[in-house]
Amino acid sequence: MLIVDDDALVRAGLSMILGGVPDLRVVGEVADGGEVAAAVASHRPDVVLMDIRMPRMDGLTATELLRRSPSPPEVLVLTTFDADEHVLRALRAGAGGFLLKDTPPAEIVAAVRRVAAGEATLSPTVTRRLIDHVTGPAAGRTGTARRDRAVRLLDGLSAREREVAVAVGRGASNAEISAELFMSVATVKAYVSRLLTKLGLNNRVQVALLVHDAELV
């Protein structure tokens, strides 16, 4: 994985935490979003830990540019805020989730593993808080337009695909969806992959955001 943060102490701490885990490897560190593309091209990481606030190119712009490139790595956003419109922008751009910088080491390791496996790193509670932050009264016409778009996209799904999408929107894991909808985990994974293709999305976090935009959860 690649660590992107302008704070040398944060980079050192994350490198120490993650570098000591047998199945994880830190392949590089950079201090600004503008250095990400070259580092990814050089090191080919599976996951990028991306800080948001950096002095030259911020992590939001870097994430958007990175996720538009062919076969991009997964992005895990690092932030000091858990209900920030900037975090939501990163998630809409295709980031696989986010971590607070004071997250305990074991949870950081677990989050990196989940993102590398294509799983979301947002709890239902955090997802709800993020959505509330940008879909309240201040969202105005932007929120209405987003809702109309989400409804239109989800209307194109089959009934079963819609059920899986709503479960993803609640933050359910594949195993939880399997138990709830009486299908195998492999079948759930196939449905999630189909949803991403039909909806033109990068990961299940974006599916969850779309479901929340449509006010289905």
Automatic annotation (TrEMBL):
<dbReference type="InterPro" id="IPR011006">
    <property type="entry name" value="CheY-like_superfamily"/>
</dbReference>
<feature type="modified residue" description="4-aspartylphosphate">
    <location>
        <position position="51"/>
    </location>
</feature>
<keyword id="KW-0804">Transcription</keyword>
<feature type="domain" description="Response regulatory">
    <location>
        <begin position="1"/>
        <end position="116"/>
    </location>
</feature>
<keyword id="KW-0805">Transcription regulation</keyword>
<dbReference type="InterPro" id="IPR000792">
    <property type="entry name" value="Tscrpt_reg_LuxR_C"/>
</dbReference>
<keyword id="KW-0597">Phosphoprotein</keyword>
<dbReference type="InterPro" id="IPR058245">
    <property type="entry name" value="NreC/VraR/RcsB-like_REC"/>
</dbReference>
<dbReference type="InterPro" id="IPR016032">
    <property type="entry name" value="Sig_transdc_resp-reg_C-effctor"/>
</dbReference>
<dbReference type="Pfam" id="PF00196">
    <property type="entry name" value="GerE"/>
</dbReference>
<protein>
    <submittedName>
        <fullName>Response regulator</fullName>
    </submittedName>
</protein>
<dbReference type="InterPro" id="IPR001789">
    <property type="entry name" value="Sig_transdc_resp-reg_receiver"/>
</dbReference>
<keyword id="KW-0238">DNA-binding</keyword>
<dbReference type="InterPro" id="IPR039420">
    <property type="entry name" value="WalR-like"/>
</dbReference>
<dbReference type="Pfam" id="PF00072">
    <property type="entry name" value="Response_reg"/>
</dbReference>
<feature type="domain" description="HTH luxR-type">
    <location>
        <begin position="150"/>
        <end position="215"/>
    </location>
</feature>
